[in-house]
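Why run this: before we spend reagent on co-expression, it is cheaper to look at a predicted model of the complex and decide which construct boundaries make sense. The entries below are exactly what would go into the expression plan.
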Amino acid sequence: MFNYYLKLGWLSIRRNPLLSALMVAAIAVGIGACMTTITVNYLMSGNPIPHKSDQLFYVQLDNWDPNVQSDDPLEPPDQVTYTDAMALIQSAPAFRQVASNRSGLVLEPGDEDELPFNVQSRNTFADFFPMFDLPFLYGSGWDDDADAAMERVVVLSRETNERVFGGEDSVGRNVRMNGMNFRIVGVLDQWHPVPKFYDLTNGDFNDPEDVFIPFNVAIEYQLPRNGNTNCWKAPDGEGFEGFLNSECVFIQFWAELRTEAEKQEYMSFLDAYAEQQKLLGRFPRPLNNRLSNVVEWMKIQEVVADDAQVMLGLSLLFLLVCLLNTIGLLLAKFLGKSGDIGLRRALGASKPTLFVQHMVESGLIGLAGGVVGLGLAALGLWGVKVLFGDDLEYLVRMDWVMILTGIGLAIASALLASIYPTWRACQVAPAGQLKTQ
Amino acid sequence: MLSMKNISMVYRTDLVETHALREFSLDVDEGDFVSVTGPSGSGKTTFLNIAGLLEQFTSGTYELDGRDVSQLNDTERSKVRNEKIGFIFQGFNLIPDLNLFDNVDVPLRYRGFSAGDRKRRIERVLDMVGLASRMKHLPSQLSGGQQQRVAIARALAGDPRFLLADEPTGNLDSQMAMSVMELISDINRFGTTIIMVTHDPALAELAGRNVHIRDGRVSDIGEDTQIVAAAHG
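The model came back. Tokens follow.
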């Protein structure tokens, strides 16, 4: 019977093309607006590394001043100091752990005709690559020895490699940055985690960095920092050395802890470390260290902005308004079919049978509205991109989940809107219609 | 097979009560061809609607094949309509965007027959009414008489216990009307019970029995064996 209902639905839609088009348009506009905001919210709140997000923990150590109120007095700083980062790297019991920050460098292409250009550098440790599962096109990351020896090695992003070496395998060649040669050990394949979870302090949806170099090298050569730095008191010492020994936080720290036991052990270590630091006059606030997995950390950092959620709410309200219009149109359409319904009732169709038949017809209208609505959503996302620039490039793409969600939402909306009109139409007394046909 | 006892039908509004049928009683046996006549507003159509389970009546009893149908719920009434009653309407009531095959298919779909069974039945009844070669045509491509033949085919396709015809020739010219009446008479001759509402005394005479309704009551039940014999002859 379902195929029969589909056929009848299609014939009915064709019989009233204008009315049907109006209904499709009403649903499409609502779905278009809704899917635009749902897509942005979905990508904002998506898990960027689902297979191990519950094993990756962002580390927060509360070295802050009790007298300085931050936005949330109970929240530890969102980065760690150099002193603490190095202490953890050397002693903390993690399967893997990395400290990292960002620098702005100048890359000088080998071709003299090419002008130097700015690149963003992620300064980190060897574990960064296996820990966050970075895909490699050529070569690999560096090893722990390179970290220890402060070797000037570099991993290029795919885009940087294409710009400087035309996409060739550049492993083993040198690239010159800030007046120093760096030996290329690897070239990444496409890697655009959305959100950029490993550093939510410097733009949740920014592109990953152009190059990756050892953290120790960046410190050794005092490469310029290009990210958030917060201090609750001025450094005690002078110059760069004084800054490194200060209470200024500028380093993101992640640990990979595979089991609950590993997490507990690591947490105990953090607390013991903080207690030890208290004895040295640091960490004046009560013990408040944190380990947050990827999803928890994104929530704490409010990756999904409040205004995006407000927009989502408004678009859902708009969809509701569109559905109210659709209800009116469906009512007009179905009551206009009273003669047909009366005849079918006379010929033996029960009310439930006719109800299902007309729900299928509404579902077809919803399907058409969904398809058109997805087109409008694509247009809306393009508008968002034009309005906010390339920074949001990876937030304005619809994947299969979103496409199926859009279609499903459209069909469900149409079915919801059609319940009352269908019920009303099925109440038609057949006897009253048969003489008037 | 059809037995109505003291059926009353009252339409009520806040201001008035209208008695469409009053203490109406009628028995129709298997194979009968009954014509129902009466002036406008006499209750002919109300009787037909009640007989076809399209309307509930106010009081009385109605038995169909020995079963009291007055207490059936809506779904059960639909099932009885589908299985036991065939309708022929004055305005043909074909669905304009379905071809002849699909129009005849409508009641069979609700009956749950297999595709093969439905096809066989449709071809048989369209052949019976002389339209087998036009089953892919739309109703608009047929004359009024041909459309009524399709409606008759649709009514017959499910092998109903009886046909209810409401002014079946009302929209046809006299030549087409006679052709349709010949078809209806033939159907009766093959054993199908027919109850036909008409305002035309000449058509009423083609039936074996005539029931005349006036003011919602049966005022006269007559037999015309001569006409029945002629029709069968």
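Chain B has one domain: 30-53+74-232. Residues 224-233 of chain B have pLDDT under 50 and may be disordered. Bring this page to Monday's planning discussion.
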